[in-house]
Predict the structure of FadR family transcriptional regulator.
Amino acid sequence: MAIDLGQINFGQIRRSEHLPARIAAQLAEEISQGRLKPGERLPTEHVLAKTLAVSRSVVREAIAQLRNEGLVETRQGVGAFVSEPSARPIRIKDGELSAPQSFRALFQLRVPLEIEAAGLAAVHHTADDLAKIDDALSHMTGAAKWTEQGIVADLAFHRAVAEATHNEYFALFIGFIAERISLAINAARSRAVLEEIVEVTIAEHVRLRDAIAGRNGVEAREAMRAHLHGAASRIDLSLEQF
């Protein structure tokens, strides 16, 4: 079923912007809002180009971007169709996590993933894995006043733990979430006494590191649980117990 262009809320496209990206963003928004429904066929390149007053090559590049993002699928000789939600990759738009409920939901997802990752890392880590964890911890300890360097080291620590599971999906998902949760660390810096945050945070990471090094899966899981709930409490985020 083809899409009625009259139902699409295309905004005016400014020539100063990268046209394909702008068109792709507008179509992605229509898909996100449900105005372009799964299974519907997009208008042809010719129709879109005429409607938007751009070249067909611009439209073609925009459609290619949507295809790369998993929002549409193209069928040779037929056209482009809105993909089913289950076939789409994880996407979190810029600014989306500024909503407290969205941020809390993502943090909730992080907790069980990282707790299990800590337990698996304790069992499966190699000497190289532990060296990466120790390197990140040393950079955290040496980050004066918990600067940007400390935040980067904190994220590197969690990525190293995820990689030590030797399960690529833990590393993939935790890496994705951790990057977006990093604003929690910035929030904590502004809402509490900085020296106290540094001292407590490092102590939590040291406990976790020692449990992993000792191949104690139970203690590693508990150390990660305590750390994540501590991090949540430092930004006034209440989580259900896991």
Notes: The CA atoms of residues 13 and 22 lie 7 Å apart.
